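hi!! sorry for the late reply, been swamped w classes. u asked for the two structures so here they r. pasted raw, havent cleaned anything up. first the sequence of the first protein and right below it the tokens
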Amino acid sequence: MRDPSRRLSTAEAAIETLLAHGIDTLYALPGVHNDPLFDAAHAAQPRLRVLHARHEQTAAYMALGAALATGRPQPYCVVPGPGVLNSSAALLTAYGMGAPVVALAGQIPSFAIDRGHGHLHELSDQLGLLRHITKRAERIEAPHEAGPKLAEAIRASVSGRPGPVALECAIDVWGRRGPAATPGPLPREVPPLDPEAVERAADILAKAERPLILAGGGALDAAPALARVAELLGAPVATFRRGRGAVPTTHPLAVSFTEGHRFWAEADVVLAVGTRAYIQQSVWGLDHRLKLIRIDIDPAEPDRFRHASCAIVADARPALEALAEAIEARGREGTGWGAALDANRAWFAEKLEAMQPQLGFMRAIRAALPEDGIYVEDVTQIGFISRLAWPVAQPRLYLSPGHQDNLGWAYGAALGAQAAMPGRKVVAVCGDGGFMYQAQELATAMHHKLPVVAVVFDDGAFGNVRRIQEERFGSRLIASDLTNPDFVAFALSFGAGGYRAETPEALEAALREAFARDEPAIVQVPVGAMPSPWGLIALPRVRGREEPKRPALP
């Protein structure tokens, strides 16, 4: 901790505390409420870089993408009121996905907060709003509070289930000077591992005849231990969205979400690691024959639908490491499902091949993107198939918006991932509808030299909305057709690369050229209607006939 007798401004103490935590990038959009903070950031150059976007939503999405790609806390800064509200979708998404985003929000003069005077950017109970979409939200009220409160907020973002945190500071407080400490990282808080719970889980799993593993975003930092447990059990590992890459998709036991549905119907024991398992429990169904073991760092999670047969409340990595040792000690042979794995894989491959042209375009992107490249999917037809079939070699190479599934998130998140991982190739896969949420941020990519390639599948519509209207509402189309720019000309107008590709082969060639040029680019892919993927995603109940009962409150 730096000398607490030093006199610093609140803003200087905040910047120095970020630096003391090894944080070297602030995603931001400046404004008068935060002027002293940006002045302090200027003085901290080159130790700290400020990457400014053209809209507050993108500043926050960049922090989110960086957090997902690295697993480390990533800060952004915006003005109060409209700035906070513009960034709130990214905070909500970070909250849903367990991403350690740190929001630094401006505030109106301290004497006027929540008094309704009509100050510039005034928002009633801004702190209360932030507390609805973050793990923690606090107000910095003096220079000596900045360092400790920021250090505590950063610790909170990675303790327990990770998630976003927020700190607000009034316009007159940022510049106020006084004695201030600038603490470094505080120890991450994790629940202690319960060895008895591990032994109970090992007893159940060692006797399982048809074990299944579900892995979510909470398993991403436990990949080797997860694979070892799966191999000891002979258990398929099903992933979807956030969990992709928890085991390499080339692993013999890795299966898709769709295959997992078939295994769920016959499993006798399910080990759910770092996942809510919401769809499986609420839609696929539960019954008395299924034993459910939960590994989750959030103590509220294991009993959210029904009491787990065994719950290990712990960080996934040490829990799985201990579980692997306990299973091995019991002599589990790992026979598992045998030939059913190959049969289900062949069945799924046949079903997947019908998803054309999506599958062909996805394979073209995979062929062009290096194995360690980062793939960011938006809510679009290619993205839906990618959640089932995109090959992922390791964790944090596949970024998905999780259960918020918010249209238009991908391009900003991809810019943040690129900023945080400058040696990687990054591609954002968008529809024309979603890309236009942040299309202006091509200016940000050019200004900061972030060579993200956006592949824009252009069907002139909010395609999923239009399909639903066609299939369920007698083709009574409303508010789903779009008017678009020429995306190639749009890219060229910024000085970026612009390409048009109408076939998978042309898409692969365009991507290879764009990656080789190492510059921001758009590849426009004109497409028509595509076959619905929902038969492979919106799957029916296969266990139990009734809704699971919620556990009684204590």
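now the second protein. again sequence first, tokens right under
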Amino acid sequence: MSDSPAPDHVLTDGWIHTLDPEAGVVQALAIRDGKVLAAGTSESIMRLAGTRTEVTVLQGRCVLPGLTDSHLHLQHLAFSLARIDCETDTLEACLSRVQARAETTPRGTWVLGHGWNQNSWGEFPDRRSLDAIAPSHPVYLTAKSMHAGWASSAALSLAGLDRDTANPPDGRLLRTPDGELTGVLLEGAMRLVSAAIPAPSMENIVHAIEAVQETLWSLGLTAVHDFDGPECFAALQILRERGSLGLRVLKSIPHDRLDEALALGLRSGFGDDWLRLGAVKVFADGALGPRTAAMLAPYDGEPDNRGTLLQDRESLFEIARQALPAGIALAIHAIGDKANHEVLEAFTDVQRRLPGADLPTMPSRIEHVQLLHPDDVPRLAALGLVASMQPIHATSDMPMAERYWGSRTRTSYAWRSLERARTRLVFGSDAPVESPNPFWGLHAAITRRRRDGAPGPEGWIPEERLSRQQALNGLTREPAALAGVAGQQGTLRPGAYADLIVLDEDPLTCPEESIPALRPRATMVGGRWRRREF
């Protein structure tokens, strides 16, 4: 045995994908001080073990680097677990759940829920249906897209909203033909009601995020890119100070806090192994669900609707002109083909109008990239932009996309076309919009099928399917590279973080239909077992 200190852990007799091109697949790992010490054969690694080394015999199980969700809302996800699940096939089923919750909630207390989708119900809901089943409670339910809300009359009253309330510049209050509020709020109008809901204490936020880590570990996630607000950032710092942060977090900066970030001299990448700053999050448009995603041509069947463009080429360039030379990357939400086009035009202006600028080492990214004009597909790679996408959105959105985008769907959720153009892809879930289960997203990226097999064996727009390795890279190596920790995260080579998951089946070789049901038997983060079932 070597004179150097023995490893804390040895994992042996496994099928270990290091995702390191040089090491490939190995049988065993040695781990010390939270990092991979060595990778190799079981015989060679066991020679490093000491009397205090914990030896785990994997019995042929598969090991992967821990997975990264490159776009989720950690605080929203944490609190959504306690809210009513409104993702139902019918309006009546949702109302039944709301009524059941109201019956066990003190009068006058807010009743909150998430997940409704008017496209499943055939129309937008109305406040009167909430009033009928929960007359003594303010009720507020956010849509699955998180770009619409549905409020009862009591909730509207507490928020000070009535028929005379004007639409905010970045949103809309839906109204009946005679001008009464329906209770549905789109985009920025949602803030008018959410601002009236009592805010949780910081300690409540801390506890909620600490608890949701257990859920994420159970799904195989060891790192996330978070897009919630400053309260979430504060809670993450508290968890880090307490030694209770067990996920590696790349934390975005909200656009409305850009001036403060600039004044403080903050830069993308600042932080440590557990918590570091990412990009400034900017919204260029809305979403497909409420048909607020900005379009080059009208939605099919809605000749007067091209969605809502929240930032155009020039305004995006002005944001870039402030942020990029100061070392802050941009993460721009763009779903419709018009919004994506405006982002690409703005970054073309960056190349032309900011020549020689000292730009951030962290690349900028487009969040979602759900629909591109065919001419725009190769432009992300040419501009050095990362496509941050959510494969599960494609299989979830198929009916809506076909209904409202028609033939334009050929370049929707165009992962393979972007990959062929050498665009860097990182994958996430947008949880709680979708489940944070990364294996559901992995299956969608590989098959472009729903978990029930729809729409058929070839999948939806099968030309855009990815190989298993390409899809897995979007959950491991590529997010690490984007976050500035390539070689430390998303791989199990010596010197990398000991972040890994243990599976009974190998997602790179098991039947495709088995992928969504995969669950880690164990998850390690920083050389510590966060959960283990064998």
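hope this helps!! also noticed smth abt the second:
The chain has 18 helices and 24 strands.
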